[in-house]
Amino acid sequence: MPRTSPAPPAERDAAATTAITGVGVTAPNGLGTEECWRATLAGRSGLGRISRFDPSRYPATVAGEVHGYVAEDHIPSRLLPQTDHQTRLSLTAAEWALRHARLDPAEIEDFAVGVATAASAGAVEFGQRELQNLWSQGKDHVSAYQSFAWFYAVNNGQISIRHGMRGPGGVLITEQAGGLDSLAQARRFVRKGASVIVSGGVDGGLCPLGWVHYLTTGLVSTESAPDRAYLPFSDAACGFVPGEGGAILIAEDARHARERGVPALATVAGYAATLDPPPWTGRPPRLGDAMANAISDAGLRPGDVDVVFADAAGDRKGDAAEADALRELFGPRGVPVTAPKTMTGRLFAGGAALDAAYAVLSLRDGVIPPTVNVAEPAPEYEMDLVTGRPRRADVRTALVVARGHGGFNAAVVLRAPE
What we know:
Blueprint (H helix, E strand, L loop, with lengths): L17 E10 L2 E2 L1 H9 L5 E3 L12 E3 L20 H16 L12 E6 L5 H14 L8 H4 L4 H10 L5 E4 L5 H14 L4 E8 L4 H8 L29 E9 H7 L5 E10 L11 H11 L9 E3 L6 H15 L5 E3 L12 H15 L1 E2 L15 E2 L5 E2 L4 E8 L3 E8 L3
Parallel strand pairs: 5-6, 5-7, 10-11, 10-15, 11-13
Antiparallel strand pairs: 1-2, 1-8, 1-9, 3-4, 7-8, 9-16, 12-14, 15-16
InterPro entries: Beta-ketoacyl_synthase, Ketoacyl_synth_C, Ketoacyl_synth_N, PKS_Beta-ketoAc_synthase_dom, Thiolase-like
Protein name: Ketosynthase chain-length factor
Family: Belongs to the thiolase-like superfamily. Beta-ketoacyl-ACP synthases family.
């Protein structure tokens, strides 16, 4: 089939609709989009004691690990020596997302297809292994691939190279907020004339070097029981649980998708980002501004939102700030709120991308996934938190919220296709 080309500049539309046409998920509670979604609606958690290394010497021992993934079943042998676990998960999620979108990049002019994903630090596990080789055996035992395999842009680059995508690209490094920032960047590229942008994020640093990095935040839960370790918006909240994995989403010009005969799963209707002021200023956080501005960018009002996928920090201060922002924008118990990341942990650059994938599936199936292990939110939050089991609802508009360590806030409005 001949390649299709992007529209010439005169025909480009600055307000072109960006559709989500494919989703690929690699998560602690499920490999593959539908497997993860079934597990999430059933309330099956992927949290457990760390098995990839001995955590007994550390104060925190619970994480969200991706189990059952065999890299050799998904990754060409030539790529195995130059990638680590998180990059392989990212390549697999991208492959699944492209397949879900029924998209063969070889059939599209290569400069019309780009990659804009999120990252937090890079391939920490690969870097740790090569540093250990350097210290224990010397420089001749360090892999030549170390020069790029640890790099924060490695997932983005490997996806682009594997599929011959030479269009616009970039890497968003805003920690948890990055998964939403990448969708916004994809929307910008589509509005500038790109046909397809691979977006989202997959992350992972569940190795001793990465684990120490997470612990420095002082926010990681030290509770050893997996079902008690991550309880956002609860009176018993005691911190967050780190995890690995995430989601890749195919963002596509809606007209291009229609021409291919592929239905939109959702549209990226609105986005906004803010940065919190430095803590020593005493000024309030700006998460609420990000939410309000994203809704305004979508041309909507707060009452049009059917569900909020919360950031869910898991500590009392962070939860209170988010609850305050929600109450100010929507009123007390004014909108259903959910935090399915209680089944995966916080996945850093992959976390908000996975929440966006959940939101797309919620729009598709008319159901809100539950927040597990939390019986009810703390009463002072005045929040309609979906707990226990999924809630059937006419979900047409979803707001996805994320905060990244360092004061980054992002919000995306996703809408069901017309």
